Amino acid sequence: MTSSVLIIGSMAFDDLELPSGVFSDVVGGAATYAALAVSRSARARIVAVVGEDFPEAVLDDLGDRGIDTAGVERKKGKTFRWAGRYSSDLASRTTLDTQLNVFGEFRPRLPPSYRDSEFVLLANIHPALQLEVLDQVVRPRFVAADTMNFWIERERPTLLEVLRRVDTLVINDEELRQLAGEHSIRQAARTVRAMGPRRLVCKRGEFGAILFDDHGTFFAPPFLLEASIDPTGAGDTFAGALLGALASAPEFDAASLRRALLVAAATASFTVEGVGTHRLAEVTASEIAARSAEIERSLRTTL
Amino acid sequence: MTSSVLIIGSMAFDDLELPSGVFSDVVGGAATYAALAVSRSARARIVAVVGEDFPEAVLDDLGDRGIDTAGVERKKGKTFRWAGRYSSDLASRTTLDTQLNVFGEFRPRLPPSYRDSEFVLLANIHPALQLEVLDQVVRPRFVAADTMNFWIERERPTLLEVLRRVDTLVINDEELRQLAGEHSIRQAARTVRAMGPRRLVCKRGEFGAILFDDHGTFFAPPFLLEASIDPTGAGDTFAGALLGALASAPEFDAASLRRALLVAAATASFTVEGVGTHRLAEVTASEIAARSAEIERSLRTTL
User: ipTM for the complex?
Assistant: First the structure.
């Protein structure tokens, strides 16, 4: 039986200024992207909060995909909102506005049915909330966490407590450098792993990702796209697909982790092909398998 | 017997503003870096021009390494000079000054002993000079070329003629996009290969390199350094080491090309560890082999 993946993270409305146009009220949030990605291979369970303005139809749609939304609380007020503007080459983005709204006073409470989750993804939220969720899971087999510059700067002691309790940290290279206080990715990875996580995955966007574990270093190449539309949520898709692939793997070992990273890269590439969750929501298992296979071929020195 | 690699390119003095200090009159130039890299595995033959100010001791040192400098002309005047300033993270650089000097009226003439060269590296120079060199080689087995934004903008027709006559183009991702007029690396690679080169190697600096050939795509990961000092010449080292490894391979096939890219990435990493050619000049064959092996391990999904 495939294990369940518990995801704590944001559900949100995003206002996106993209080279291809301006899009408002786009349903997003780390938990949404991650859950859609997990749902391709395992059972996703979301812990999140939404406001009165969040469409019931979106939650229904997630439910239709086998995603458990019992842990999604609906509170009085507005849903979390993020607004951002991307550069013309999509390589960088500026946050124009962040409105925490109902997310500001969120205290995650797990439905009893969630407590046996074997895989846990602590997506990018306040590290204190990441700890609260972790305290409520009975005996997780594998815990992965993401974070961001804001928490690295403002909540370092709490974040360090999270790091002592996770198996794998999944962050981008800028955050890795900031957390370690070192420019060299190699040195930074060593420093951060000494803080607790046995494994580190450094996400590098269009350049792929690097895994650092006890077996050395593994480069997961990106899937090279014909056209990129919207990178929002690609990192969350990557993390979700990674945990989904691990949860559905027959064994958890170094090889399955490496293959899961290729599936994660393949799945994330679909997210970038559409605005918001549009392309991710409609991608088929065989499309993901085809891109994973192409990425795996691009690693081979012999043909 | 190992084949010879003919290199046409600049020999230069560089003035470098690096995070680690300001360094003047550093011996550099594409041909110098490439020849040092080739010399680790094959016989390098340089075609270049230097001024009266270029130290004979440098040419003697290259000769002592088995590098043929019979094609290095010494002309009245000053040697080509480049001055640049790097950003604090070494990720970008600004050209402060370029003085062509004796390079301005250079017309390459190959010594008769060079004409049988099987491998040819047309490093970044005026495409008309690249063509002149190519015309003087009797029957090259493999021709690789580099270029830069300046020639892409100003000498496009001549550059397109070069592209029709080379096997492999080795350029960075910015140049690839500019040459193709497309942002997507995947689309740009297709467009540029349609211009002539059967293979394309896209250099991405600290992110590694991507080969596009008839067998698909291959990602050559970078060697992750503990500390980076000076990226000047890393791309030329990469191209030189690539041709050196191919020239010394028992066979020329898709697998040897892929392995040669790993050797190229390993060799280039040493260049970045010292100012100018300092570290590259002293690196041993076993140091290069160790880093190549580490890079190859970082591609494996099974251990």
Answer: 0.93
